[in-house]
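pls design
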């Protein structure tokens, strides 16, 4: 059959919608259906963000000794993530959202095909640096003897919380902001040194979770290991796709419909998550189509623009080092680590 397709995503019975009767099939006349396109779901992203915040607060209420401490930490986390969010928005990232992880923190999600090292550095530092600056101002104000407080929590303690929570995020351990900064700007991600660094981070996180008697922290190294195994599988799938003569050096918008369906069939054969999906033809969307689309997008080559000079790397390092050293630069009493009571 000669097939024609309406504009936009397919809907309904594809066997009915996607065929035209009494037309001969030839390689030259065959038309592939359009690749899957996800509808704009900005409202859904923010609903999920609010739901994650609600779960974060509800669980935190039963864990933290004081709801005031919980609200303060939530405010610190929110300011931190807003820094990332605003920077990513400025650099035109797509599908942005802030999501909270109960007991563990929060993260900002977004997508962009061409990733710049300089932009990445700004985005990663835009989270912890504002919090450290705010904490420093609060701490210095507290030294003047003024009786300011936030939620009945002293200004000095509030400032210390701002500094410490953001300073921890700058530690050179993946996936913390400091670890991502080291991996993206100084180790160039795809290098063997980057992979060694990620494995060392996994080992450190396992050790820290064990020593801290906080088992929930094992979630981070477990997720990182799963991601590494997934990337190994994706690499083998990517090689097979390229062996089929399909070019992956383009964005999803410009991916030909024919290549979409060919890649989709390879995923169904090779990826364990899609074993229950019927290959094409028939050209019908699956209930897993959005996940298939996301996986195909992850296969398309991302461009890392290496636009940070040696002088730029030195400047980034000095900013990072100054933030890490802020408690000593402020001549803080280092016993404050034992004064949180959290």
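designed seq:
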């Amino acid at each position: 059959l000669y097939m024609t397709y309406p504009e936009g995503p397919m809907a309904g019975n594809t066997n009915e919608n996607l065929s035209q009767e009494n037309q001969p099939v030839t390689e030259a006349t065959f038309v592939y259906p359009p690749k899957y396109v996800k509808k704009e779901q900005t409202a859904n992203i923010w609903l999920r963000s609010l739901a994650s915040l609600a779960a974060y607060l509800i669980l935190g209420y039963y864990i933290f000794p004081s709801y005031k401490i919980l609200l303060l930490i939530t405010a610190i986390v929110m300011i931190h993530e807003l820094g990332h969010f605003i920077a990513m928005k400025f650099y035109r990232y797509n599908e942005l959202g802030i999501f909270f992880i109960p007991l563990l923190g929060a993260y900002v999600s977004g997508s962009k095909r061409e990733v710049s090292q300089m932009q990445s550095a700004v985005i990663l530092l835009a989270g912890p640096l504002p919090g450290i600056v705010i904490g420093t101002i609060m701490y210095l104000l507290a030294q003047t003897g003024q009786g300011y407080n936030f939620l009945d929590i002293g200004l000095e303690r509030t400032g210390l919380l701002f500094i410490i929570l953001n300073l921890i995020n700058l530690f050179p351990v993946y996936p913390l902001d400091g670890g991502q900064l080291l991996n993206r700007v100084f180790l160039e991600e795809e290098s063997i040194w980057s992979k060694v660094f990620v494995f060392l981070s996994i080992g450190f996180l396992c050790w820290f979770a064990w020593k801290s008697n906080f088992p929930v922290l094992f979630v981070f190294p477990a997720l990182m290991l799963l991601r590494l195994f997934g990337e190994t599988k994706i690499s083998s799938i990517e090689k097979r796709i390229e062996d089929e003569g399909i070019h992956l050096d383009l964005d999803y918008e410009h991916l030909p419909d024919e290549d979409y369906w060919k890649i989709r069939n390879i995923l169904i054969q090779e990826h364990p998550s899609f074993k229950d999906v019927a290959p094409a033809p028939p050209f019908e969307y699956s209930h897993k189509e959005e996940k298939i689309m996301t996986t195909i997008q992850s296969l398309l080559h991302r461009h890392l623009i290496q636009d940070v000079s040696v002088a730029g790397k030195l400047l980034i390092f000095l900013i990072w080092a100054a933030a890490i050293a802020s408690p000593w630069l402020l001549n803080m009493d280092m016993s404050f680590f034992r004064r949180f009571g959290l």
